[in-house]
Amino acid sequence: xxxxxxxxxxxxxxxxxxxxxxxxxxxxxxxxxxxxxxxxxxxxxxxxxxxxxxxxxxxxxxxxxxxxxxxxxxxxxxxxxxxxxxxxxxxxxxxxxxxxxxxxxxxxxxxxxxxxxxxxxxxxxxxxxxxxxxxxxxxxxxxxxxxxxxxxxxxxxxxxxxxxxxxxxxxxxxxxxxxxxxxxxxxxxxxxxxxxxxxxxxxxxxxxxxxxxxxxxxxxxxxxxxxxxxxxxxxxxxxxxxxxxxxxxxxxxxxxxxxxxxxxxxxxxxxxxxxxxxxxxxxxxxxxxxxxxxxxxxxxxxxxxxxxxxxxxxxxxxxxxxxxxxxxxxxxxxxxxxxxxxxxxxxxxxxxxxxxxxxxxxxxxxxxxxxxxxxxxxxxxxxxxxxxxxxxxxxxxxxxxxxxxxxxxxxxxxxxxxxxxxxxxxxxxxxxxxxxxxxxxxxxxxxxxxxxxxxxxxxxxxxxxxxxxxxxxxxxxxxxxxxxxxxxxxxxx
Length: 493
Hints:
- The radius of gyration is 37 Å and the shape is elongated.
- It is α+β, with helices and mostly antiparallel strands.
- The two termini are about 65 Å apart.
- The protein contains ten helices and seven strands.
- The chain has helices at about 1-15, 75-85, 85-110, 150-215, 220-255, 260-270, 295-315, 360-425, 435-465, 475-480, and strands at about 50, 115-125, 130-145, 285, 320-335, 340, 345-355.
């Protein structure tokens, strides 16, 4: 009776100890996020206290199709090509597979294991047993009861990191798309600047020609003709420099997309430059809660959950472990033409392992896991603050470029009119070359500024596209709206 009581006590000890619940830190923590954006778009755009303009038709998921909405098929083609060959995207896919394998391994630790063994031997034993052959095979199941939830915690950590890896895949695609778009619009801007500088160089060359003729006729001093020639040389040098910058953009796109340079140049020359001013007209609203739709914020949040689970696993290692094993086998002994069957089975042993002394290793592992958790929380909150900053900065830049657009247009018109006036006076001998060159510099600066402003506006839109998550859907939100959804679907975007 006493032996049965002791056996029951030993078997029940882990269950009794499990009442001492593990004190793992929370998987979700709070982070300060804005209830509204403090930067806003121009007053011409519809803005309320909680929303700001964004080119996605009022639906964040439409951001993933934003490039198609630019009416520029070449840009879409370049982005798709870059995403196909991008090592960043390939690495993200690899991390998904690694995380998925880690999760499978973590879940497997919760299930029983089954091994099979087989052996055959021939021996000459002591009398009265004669020479014979022994053949045996067995199935050996084993199972470790996850009494304190250590293995379940590992499984939760693996799931959190798998979800984070899937979000990182989308973040990688968004980053590649933004990089290609920025380089593409840089090239388009560069080509526009090349046209501006080419026209300016042609104007300077014509002024130089007229000045030479006038100087040779004795109507102008040689110094004036020299100034005009210097101005023409400066214009040609600026054109050469601008063309080189455009070539650098082309080569960068070749590296990003893996498209042959001649083919890429032909595609660019055959495709008209996009009307970037139309991009900012098709907008709706951006909820302040859009931070939950950013992959990097979600990844940081999942890392907090994984770190919390790892603390629970480290704590569980300090408690007893209960395991059960057994065996079901068949054996036969053949000697002298006679076969004897020896089938066996066993249940047990039931093994209880109680850690007593390890030099503080398990306690140190808990401390390390807790420190890692604290770092993950800080990183998560920092990622939220950074996300707020990026959205606000993009909105400020958009507001700034929109506010400056009309002034830039007025400046271009005014300086062009001024230059045309001085040029007419100069041709009729009523203005000197220095005044004409001053007017030319002002006109050129205003035209270059107007083109650069278009580039700055597109950069701000792309930054806001990235800051809003690029159309990624938080799987928690997706699961709430579609209970039948699963995490593997996110890699099919």
